[in-house]
Design brief:
globular; mainly alpha; Hypothetical protein af1432
Length: about 200
């Protein structure tokens, strides 16, 4: 019997690479030391999974003149061309990454992903961009296009409004000179390779 077969049939007892417990309250220090090492290794590959998720956007929602991946890449390309910093460029790149799994709150999913690694402004902009985008089409769907006005006095209101105007709503042009995903990979690896929740970065 293979190791995989033994594990699937409950044969993991006594193995050095799995914990001893079936309830977390029964775990030992050795169990949690083992899990910490495995989690650190797994977490170190988070950027690979993000890149894979971005690639999947190429197969997503139809009807636009470019794919969701094309839109994401174009948004990031416009941000870079405008001189945005790496945090905001990566925010522009992943802002719609939740479309597949969280179509009704994709902004919040993307914000949760990036929150531990960037300054609070970027997280707020990514989280709020869905509401701010209503300005361009909400009135056609019976929604309040001016819902963003509730945040007029927020210090990052203009940052989000500019994000939407200059990069998000404008990035459906098949003729715009858009950088490929490979161009942004070093930025993704830098941002998602940072120490999470670094107080010096002002994460929320």
């Amino acid at each position: 019997m293979s190791t995989t077969e033994a594990h699937s049939q409950g044969g993991s007892a006594g193995r050095a690479d799995v914990v001893s417990f079936t309830q977390m309250k029964d775990g030992t220090r050795e169990d949690y030391d083992l899990l910490e090492g495995l989690e650190l290794e797994y977490n170190g590959r988070v950027c690979d999974r993000i890149i894979d998720a971005l690639r999947k956007l190429d197969e997503g929602l139809a009807g636009y003149r470019i794919s969701r991946l094309g839109h994401s890449l174009q948004s990031a390309s416009r941000a870079e061309a405008d001189g945005a910093d790496i945090d905001m460029i990566v925010g522009a790149l992943i802002h719609d990454i939740g479309d597949e799994l969280a179509p009704d709150n994709h902004s919040q999913l993307a914000a949760a992903m990036i929150r531990p690694y960037v300054r609070a402004e970027v997280t707020w902009v990514v989280e709020m961009h869905g509401m701010f985008q209503l300005y361009y089409y909400g009135h056609f769907r019976g929604l309040d296009r001016n819902a963003r006005d509730a945040y007029k006095d927020h210090p990052w209101y203009q940052s989000c409004a500019d994000f939407c105007e200059r990069w998000d709503q404008a990035s459906f042009d098949p003729d715009y000179p858009t950088q490929p995903l490979e161009h942004f990979e070093p930025m993704l690896r830098e941002v998602f390779g940072r120490k999470p929740w670094d107080p010096a970065r002002g994460c929320l």
